[in-house]
């Protein structure tokens, strides 16, 4: 994109920019390209993970039971890696560049290093997928020793983590330079503040992952004689669970952004919202301890203090956001004149805007299913009963798949017109996509939770063995909920296919400047 091609594109001293005709913000061309490449790669990872989800869901459905045991565990490993790591982190990398450069009107620092980071992440993701599908890493997402994977699996994992660390460092450096150069006045926007929270947590998270994976790689190469499973579990869950807290912080930053884009909402008390993000930095990672409650290497006082007390300070942060965002939306709608009755503002909300629907459904699924079940399962005493059942799976599918992924999908519908500068493909499909996906995920998560309550085991290819060890009336109920989970999976995958079709189709639409903040009008 030449700097002299059009009057709304100009060259700075180091970077090329264009002026967005909708937001009037300067868009760094280098950041724009990185946003596009990271977002596209994220959608590819989502497509792979969603395909595996369909096959896994049909296998856990008792009347279908599609895959053999080896392929079930193989695809379960690939599903976890693509959905919990690759889809999320690639999209978050795009979000970090968007927040640091576009929202702050700033230039991207370290462009060449940013491309190195993308290359490391891409190579790592491709290596991990290849090794898993080749049958050399049937270790599932947690990959506990003494389960063994090919050394290339750990090398790919580490390369991806190093690339993600570089992205976080570039993001923080860009914010610091933007402040020094006076690119914005006063405090940074709340959405960027939330992304900064995610980046800070991510640095801890990725470092913890490296501490777990590097010795494991040395063990697999024969350089060290053994890998202590207890050490691995403690350090891995500093990555494995904390990674979802990165997703949580990014999701809430996007919630605030979508609320502003759709109805012009501003927090009623922005200082309180910022304070809630600080709670995440200080306390959210302590929830990882609930994976370690039966491990003998940690003192009981440590386990129960972290899971039953300190973790609730992070929950308090989530409660602040849970009230702040709806209050901001209500205030904005009432300011526009929608004051009739208690819920007139809600009835007159822009329900045909896919971003707004994604926001509301994401908050509802996270707030009423994912969040409360997390609080319950994080409590030490209850966790001992539920941890190896499908209740855990239902919980994190509500948080990550229902909450975070749906928020990311809704945000995509603004990124495509504003950054890709293309209109959305199949706009009637766009209106329905969040509903199909959201209802599917909610059905699946609730059914998983109830099936786990009635004895369905976690991470198991075949559940029929439970029929001999649970009361006679429960297997039929458990199978009912397993079937509902399969139906919810089909519906969620359908919504996921709709999203991918919209994104891919939009890439082939004629490029043009966006004309509105509404994705359906752009």
**N-to-C order of helices and strands:** EEEHHHHHHHHHHHHHHH
Mean pLDDT: 90
Give the overall shape, derived from the CA principal axes.
globular
Number of strands: 3
Number of helices: 15
Keywords for this entry:
about 525 residues; mainly alpha; 3-stranded antiparallel sheet; 15 helices; 3 strands; about 0% strand; globular; disordered N terminus
General description of the model:
This protein is mostly helical and 522 residues long. Helix content is 70%, strand content 2%. It has a 3-stranded antiparallel sheet with strand order 1-2-3. Helix 3 (111-133) runs antiparallel to helix 4, helix 5 (190-220) runs parallel beside helix 8 and helix 8 packs antiparallel against helix 9. The model is unreliable at 1-13 (pLDDT under 50).
What layout of secondary structure does this protein have?
Layout: E1 9-11, E2 16-19, E3 26-28, H1 29-60, H2 69-103, H3 111-133, H4 151-180, H5 190-220, H6 229-240, H7 242-263, H8 270-283, H9 300-335, H10 344-347, H11 354-378, H12 380-386, H13 390-420, H14 427-453, H15 474-507
Antiparallel strand pairs: 1-2, 2-3
Helix pairs in contact: 1-2, 1-3, 1-15, 2-3, 2-4, 2-5, 2-7, 2-13, 3-4, 4-5, 5-6, 5-7, 5-8, 7-9, 7-11, 7-13, 8-9, 9-11, 11-13, 11-14, 13-14, 13-15, 14-15
Quick recap:
This protein has 522 residues and is an all-alpha fold.
């Amino acid at each position: 994109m030449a700097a002299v091609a059009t009057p709304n594109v100009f060259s700075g001293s180091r970077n090329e920019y264009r002026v967005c005709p909708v937001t009037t913000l300067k868009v760094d061309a280098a950041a724009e390209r990185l946003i596009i490449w990271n977002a596209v790669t994220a959608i590819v990872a989502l497509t792979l993970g969603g395909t595996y989800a369909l096959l896994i869901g049909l296998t856990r459905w008792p009347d279908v039971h599609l895959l053999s045991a080896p392929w079930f565990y193989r695809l379960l490993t690939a599903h976890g890696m693509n959905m919990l790591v690759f889809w999320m982190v690639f999209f978050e990398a795009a979000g970090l560049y968007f927040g640091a450069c576009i929202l702050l009107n700033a230039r991207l620092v370290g462009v060449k290093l940013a491309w190195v980071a993308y290359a490391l992440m891409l190579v790592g993701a491709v290596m991990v997928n290849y090794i898993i599908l080749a049958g050399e890493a049937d270790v599932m997402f947690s990959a506990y020793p003494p389960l063994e994977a090919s050394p290339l699996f750990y090398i790919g994992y580490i390369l991806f983590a190093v690339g993600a660390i570089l992205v976080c460092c570039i993001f923080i450096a860009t914010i610091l330079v933007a402040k020094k150069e006076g690119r914005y006045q006063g405090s940074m926007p709340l959405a960027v503040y939330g992304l900064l929270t995610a980046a800070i947590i991510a640095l801890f998270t990725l470092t913890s992952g490296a501490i777990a994976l590097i010795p494991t790689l040395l063990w697999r190469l024969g350089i060290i004689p053994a890998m202590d499973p207890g050490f691995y579990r403690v350090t891995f869950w500093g990555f494995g669970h904390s990674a979802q807290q990165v997703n949580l912080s990014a999701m809430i930053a996007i919630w605030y952004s979508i609320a502003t884009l759709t109805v012009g909402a501003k927090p009623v008390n922005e200082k309180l919202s910022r304070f809630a993000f600080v709670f995440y930095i200080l306390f959210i990672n302590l929830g990882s301890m609930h994976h370690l409650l039966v491990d003998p290497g940690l003192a009981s006082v440590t386990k129960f203090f972290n899971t039953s007390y300190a973790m609730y300070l992070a929950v308090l942060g989530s409660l602040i956001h849970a009230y702040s965002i709806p209050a901001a939306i209500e205030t904005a709608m009432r300011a526009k004149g929608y004051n009739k009755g208690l819920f007139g503002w809600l009835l007159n909300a822009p329900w045909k805007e896919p971003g707004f629907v994604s926001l509301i459904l994401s908050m509802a699924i996270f707030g009423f299913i994912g969040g409360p079940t997390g609080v319950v399962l994080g409590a030490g005493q209850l966790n001992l009963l539920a941890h190896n059942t499908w209740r855990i799976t239902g919980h994190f599918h509500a948080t990550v798949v229902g909450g975070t992924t749906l928020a990311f999908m809704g945000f995509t519908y603004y990124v495509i017109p504003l950054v890709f500068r293309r209109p959305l493909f199949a706009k009637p499909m766009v209106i329905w996509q969040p509903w199909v996906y959201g209802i599917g995920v909610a059905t699946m998560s609730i059914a998983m939770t109830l099936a786990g309550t009635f004895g369905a085991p976690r991470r198991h290819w075949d559940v029929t063995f439970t029929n001999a060890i649970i009361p006679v009336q429960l297997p039929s109920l458990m199978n009912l909920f397993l079937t509902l989970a399969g139906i919810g999976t089909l519906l969620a995958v359908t919504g996921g296919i709709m999203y991918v079709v919209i994104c891919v189709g939009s890439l082939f639409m004629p490029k043009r400047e966006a004309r509105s903040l509404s994705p359906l009008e752009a």
